[in-house]
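**Backbone description:**
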Amino acid sequence: MEYKDYYRSLGVDKSASADDIRKSYRRLARKYHPDVNPNNKSAEERFKEINEAYEVLSDPEKRRKYDQLGASWQQYQTMGGDPSGFDWSQWFGGPTAAQSGGRTTYTEYVDLNDLFGGEGGFSDFFQFIFGGRGGGPAQARQARSSPFVLEGQNIEQDVPISLEEAYHGTTRVLQVGQRRLEVKIPPGVRTGSRVRVAGEGTPGSNGGKPGDLYLVITVMEHPIFRRDGDDLHMRLSVDLYDLILGGEVTVNTLRGRVSLTIPPETKAGQTFRLRGQGMPRLRKPSEHGNLFVEVQPVIPQKLNDKEKELYRQLADLRRSHEAR
């Protein structure tokens, strides 16, 4: 029987954290999923491989047993043992999935036997070592003939949206298998927000409930506004005269235009807070963060001779005043 290197299958080190393993699995599962690679036998086999690896490495008890087996296998190879002579019997295992009401339920991964049909799912290595769907030839046959109640797998789909869409809320029409879904994305979502659509993941089998669909939101960068939580930041170009003498300027916010009063002798880079002009708070869309406006002077260009003379006079007046 061939030893399976599950860490290599997921592209992670043996010291990888549970979070690292989960991230690597999700990335590879999306890449090799049958829906993405129809009629691709190579991708199908790779998908089986990474799902089997994730089922072991995502379960602390399975991973602990697998690591012990791996250490024993490596020691046997180091001593020059014939791979065909390794004693696998000491590693045979019984069911490791959670038992509930006499029914075995597996969650968070695809049931490969159900997805690809009959004998084409988990390897003999998995079935001999971990049981549940194996534990030896007789037990493997019994497992395949027993009606497991399997929950469906959750599915994630990346959804990029604009900052304006994150501000007002939006919808996305998605094709999930043969179904078209219109999903509402609420105001206030951030990059990393997950919008759950219950029951629209992979179907369960033998009465198991279906998984959920999660839209993983990415809010794209905006040419004007920079987001910080529920607050927004922007730079506003203001005429030099308004900064010196004071005045009112118009600020284009995501909600609409508002007026900003500029006090006389405002310094370049000074920041003003516009209350309630930031992003809506997720789950409390009636509440908003703030908009922080940093003013920057617009230096007059293409001055005529008269304007240059006036600026010279202003400079002379300023210098004589400072010299007193």
